[in-house]
Amino acid sequence: NAGVTQTPKFQVLKTGQSMTLQCAQDMNHNSMYWYRQDPGMGLRLIYYSASEGTTDKGEVPNGYNVSRLNKREFSLRLESAAPSQTSVYFCASSEGTSPPNTEAFFGQGTRLTVV
Amino acid sequence: LAKTTQPISMDSYEGQEVNITCSHNNIATNDYITWYQQFPSQGPRFIIQGYKTKVTNEVASLFIPADRKSSTLSLPRVSLSDTAVYYCLVGDSGYALNFGKGTSLLVTP
What we know:
The structure holds two protein chains of two kinds.
Chain A lengths: L3 E4 L2 E4 L5 E7 L5 E7 L5 E7 L6 E2 L6 E5 L5 E5 L8 E8 L9 E3 L3 E5 L1
Parallel strand pairs in A: 2-11
Antiparallel strand pairs in A: 1-3, 3-8, 4-5, 4-9, 5-6, 7-8, 9-10, 9-11
Chain B lengths: L8 E5 L4 E6 L8 E7 L6 E6 L2 E4 L4 E4 L5 E6 L8 E8 L11 E6 L1
Parallel strand pairs in B: 1-9
Antiparallel strand pairs in B: 2-7, 3-4, 3-8, 5-6, 6-7, 8-9
């Protein structure tokens, strides 16, 4: 079972470049999330999509945009990358937004370096 | 959202029982308590979730006192492979997944 798949796994960008991180889940989950994790830090929520057709800001949305393309896919876009966006990005999905259906499944992460 | 406080780090020897306590004084009536585990270079993995009293699965136990202002994740007889970061989350909705910094557990021989 694939679960949550993120592409690419690694990426190096120059300051000012743009890119889109892709995320797809095959578990028919309603909710999807994007997190960033900096060295020695916990995960910080960037954006989430509680259900298809909706997106909301999380704790650190500045500099990012998202698209819930369909129920399976949730992409994260950096319009003008900055060194402060160097991080590991995780995508996650969960069945629902009310316990006990909130177990989140994570992708393997995208390691992004902005130089 | 209820704020959680947990130790930054803990050390243990193989074979010991490890208890990680999380404080959540402002927990709301509808909030559940969920614990995740994260290994280096991997995304977090769900361990256990509970609302009150005790919950046990094949991996861990979760103890929640009657006032629900804290919870304790218990890992029986840890091994080296249990070295990871453990996150305590409190919330009543799927998107209240705020992880914080977690507790870094180091298990040594």
